[in-house]
Amino acid sequence: KTENLRELQYDVHRIVEATALPIGVTIAVRGTVNAMDASIREFMGGLLMSAFLVYLVLVVQFRSFIDPFIIIFAVPPGLAGALLTLWLTGTTMNVMSLMGLVMMVGIVVSNSILIVDVANRLRETQHEGPARAVAVACRIRLRPILMTSLATIIGLIPMSFGWAAGSESYAPLARVVIGGLVLSVIVTVFIVPAIYVLIHREHSVRHTHREPLPTGASS
């Protein structure tokens, strides 16, 4: 099992570090765990690259560099929830955990997109202020966000316990997704609207101050 391999690796490294070696003697650890470590490093690089590409796609979609930043801001709480779940369940970080992070980030980003997209539409069509627009957007999109997240969480609960034979290797993936979604859903409906209001209110104030005076108006 991946968990046993990881624990064995930690034990071996502790023994190697505590061993006093004669001059000219070195120890090289070989085996499956080294290949798994290389896979994790490559996967982390791919994860960072995918996050950057997602940001670029959002920039094109929203025609703004600010709104994608607001959407991506919902990812850190999800990562915190995922890591907290791994720590509470005694699960190590492995390839399956990283795959779960990718899935979790995709769901969290989609939830934020629902809020930001509706808020922008309300501001454009009904000329609502940032605070009013994002409040209405949260109220409208709260049910779809909860339905999507709860369906994913409930569906992954059996996998997270590893009840079926051979499903132990997929348990880290399920635990990461569940932990990340639970915290991100709770935090997203508060953090994303707050960041949206702060950024767009400041942007609106600066835009208002920069508007030219009408012709013939005295300064």
Low-confidence stretches: 207-214
Radius of gyration: 24 Å
Strand content: under 5%
Count of runs of 4 or more consecutive helical residues: 7
For the sheet with most strands, the description reads:
none
**What is the straight-line distance between the termini?**
76 Å
Instruction: Report mean pLDDT, rounded to a whole number.
Output: 79
Q: Can you describe what's shown?
A:
The termini are far apart. Residues 207-214 have low confidence and may be disordered. By secondary structure, this protein is mainly α. The protein is elongated, with a radius of gyration of 24 Å. The protein has helices at residues 2-18, 32-62, 66-72, 75-89, 95-125, 130-161, 171-210. It contains 7 helices and no strands.
